[in-house]
Amino acid sequence: MARSVTLHDVARAAGVSLATASRVLNGSERKVAATYRDRVLAAARDLQYTPNLSAQAVARGRSNSIGLVVADIVDPYFAAIAAGAMSAADEADEAGLVVTISVTDRDPARELSTVHALRGHRPRALLLAGSRPTDPAADAALEAELRHFADTGGRVVLIAESTIDFPSVRLANHAGALDLGRALHGLGYRRAAVLTGPAGLITPSERARGFIDGFGPARIYREDFSRDGGHRAARRLLDDLDGTAERGPSDVDLVFAASDVMAVGAMTALREAGRAPGRDLGVAGFDDVATIRDITPALTTVRVPLEAMGSAAVTLALGEHERPDPVHIAGEVVLRESTPARRA
Fold first, then answer.
1. How far is CA 251 from the centre of its chain?
2. Dist CA 16 CA 9 (whole Å)
3. Cα-Cα-Cα-Cα dihedral of 172, 333, 177, 163, to 10°?
4. In sequence order, what DSSP letters do the residues of 162-183 get, joined into one string?
5. 7-60 homologous superfamily
6. What does the pLDDT look like over 203-247, one tens digit per residue?
7. What is the mean pLDDT of the chain?
8. Residue 33 phi/psi, 5° resolution?
9. Whether the Cβ atoms of residue 27 and residue 95 lie closer than 8 Å to each other
């Protein structure tokens, strides 16, 4: 088996000291003459040397990575944010930043342990995206963990609303849903049901409240903030209105789901009950994720620049200001075939 190439091998091939080779390849801030630097880089390339990332982290005080913590990587909402973060990282540093992704499943204990583990890898920044149940004790523990990271030179950026005070990229959930509610009321809808996530999740709760503020009173159904949660909530709606999911509702003309993914689950439940989304009931979502653009009927929603949110978080994390102002992201109402105008 071939022996791994070491830093000693690179130094010997370049004709420089081990310390000089280390300064070039492990990211030390000490200056190295251009001629020596070029020789070290050429030797490393010829020998196919792979740097020791742990040694680099020690030399720099930080690794060349950014930790992105999301609730659910399968959800296209978080996948789009991750794509934006990785794209921004590729463009941000000539040495090449690496974005690592960790998933919490909206479990506060898992989020806390994930942040603690990532701290040990000395990333340049931690980006936290997505709703989780709000809990004072869990929030305090997470904030303390993030403060330790920030106090040792790390940067923290939160994506979406949070009760924790750190630089953030904030999506106007309430405002976007309010605009959607007003627009759908203007199309003639008068009796709505809102399908949203658990009460402790900030994002779906803000969207539900915004929609009702713009539309008017509505039935509220809370389930998991997921496709299956949207399906279960729609089944409960149909059962409540008619006593059986085999018949359609008589006193609801619109279903607003707090995410496109929930809306897809709701549309499936309606079809299973013999009801046609867009014809028998209007259906609307929130996010305009790419994966829903091919469903039929086309879904009315609030378009959110998700990749731009991920990119903005990386830019915020790498900026020079210790306490930058929040970046505010607005949504845009997009009316499609799932909510045709109602006859007077």
1. 36
2. 10
3. -20
4. -SS-S-EEEE-HHHHHHHHHHH
5. lambda repressor-like DNA-binding domains (1.10.260.40)
6. 999 999 999 999 999 999 999 999 999 999 999 999 988 764 444
7. 88
8. -55, 145
9. yes
- DSSP bridge partners of 159: 129, 169
What would the pLDDT profile of 246-296 be if each residue is shown by its tens digit? 444 558 999 999 999 999 999 999 999 999 999 999 999 999 999 888 899
Chain CA centroid to CA 291, Å: 16
The pTM of the full predicted model, rounded to 2 decimals, is 0.81
Angle at 166 between CA 161 and CA 167, to 5 degrees: 85
- Tell me which of 298 and 96 has the higher pLDDT: 298
Q: Is the pLDDT of residue 92 over 70?
A: yes
Tokens 């959607």 -> residue: 180
Structure tokens, 13: 């091939």
Are 221 and 237 in contact by the 8 Å Cβ rule? The answer is yes
Query: Among candidates 80, 134, 89, which has minimal Cα distance to 111?
Result: 134
The CATH number fitting domain 173-304, selected from 3.40.50.2300, 3.30.930.10, 1.10.1790.10, 3.40.640.10: 3.40.50.2300
Which runs of consecutive H residues, i.e. helices, occur in the chain?
Answer: 7-14, 18-25, 34-47, 53-60, 76-92, 108-119, 136-151, 173-186, 202-215, 227-242, 260-272, 306-318
